[in-house]
Specification:
- The chain has helices at about 5-65, 80-90, 95-100, 115-125, 175-190, 200-225, 230-239, and strands spanning about 70-75, 105-110, 130-140, 150-160, 165-175.
- The chain is an alpha+beta fold.
- The longest helix has about 60 residues, at about 5-65.
- The model is unreliable at about 1-15 (pLDDT under 50).
């Protein structure tokens, strides 16, 4: 990126920032209470999904004497991010538009020990009768061009209010420790203010992702040499 391009990007970002601040002020006047209620519903949906994974982790711990989940994180998109996404897609700025068009407002990240644990947990999660799969993107089998790896599920789950049952969408991301470490640091580097990501830096980041994948596979081979995975144990009992 040239200096001219960088200056243009900074000016564009400043203009967008002002636009978003204006949009947010309008939103707060027109939709403050409905938006607050909607975000509360998304938080409830995140809690529902997070609890399901805590239960699965406890079950596998009792059954196989190890926890496949290293950590569970949740996040809710900010109002600025919501408005930016609707504006970028040229969609209406309304509560109905948010529910219909944005699937990743509520996010749950499940950090696993091994790649096989990701698929085992995802399968167990999707078998639950109150979970409906909306979309699946496997960036582990098909990594993004920059090296990003993760399994993404968009699911719909009901939350139970005092007078109704309301279906809500949640994005679930599954990563190993190395995938999560790489994604977090790559994001900090790539989106640092006034930093130009050259082709060489992009290549270095991609190479680090590739090394992380090799470490994942190597650690899993070591783990399987000393202890069968839950799926291996299940297949052995079925014989």
């Amino acid at each position: 990126m040239s200096l001219l391009d960088l200056n243009h990007a900074n000016i564009t970002q400043t203009l967008l920032s002002r636009l978003f601040q204006s949009d947010i002020r309008t939103w707060l006047l027109d939709y403050a209470q409905p938006y607050k209620e909607l975000m509360a519903y998304y938080r409830c949906a995140m809690m529902e999904v997070s609890t399901k994974f805590h239960v699965l982790n406890e079950e596998f711990s009792l059954q196989y004497d190890r926890n496949p989940i290293e950590g569970i994180k949740t996040r809710l998109k900010s109002l600025e991010s919501v408005i930016e996404k609707l504006s970028r897609k040229q969609l209406p700025l309304s509560i109905e538009s948010i529910e219909q068009n944005i699937n990743d407002i509520a996010g749950v990240r499940v950090v696993c020990s091994y790649q096989s644990d990701i698929y085992m947990l995802a399968d167990a999660f999707l078998r639950q009768d109150d979970i409906v799969l909306v979309q699946r993107k496997d960036y582990i089998q098909n990594p993004k061009p920059n090296g990003y790896r993760s399994l993404h599920l968009i699911v719909e789950t009901p939350i139970y209010l005092h007078n109704q049952k309301k279906p809500m969408k949640v994005e679930v991301q599954f990563r190993t420790i190395s995938m999560d470490w790489w994604a977090s640091l790559e994001h900090k580097i790539r989106y640092k203010k006034n930093v130009v990501i050259t082709d060489q830096i992009a290549k270095e980041l991609y190479d680090c992702a590739a090394m992380g994948e090799q470490l994942d596979l190597r650690m899993e081979r070591i783990q399987r040499s000393v202890e069968p995975s839950p799926m291996d144990a299940k297949e052995e009992r079925a014989k």
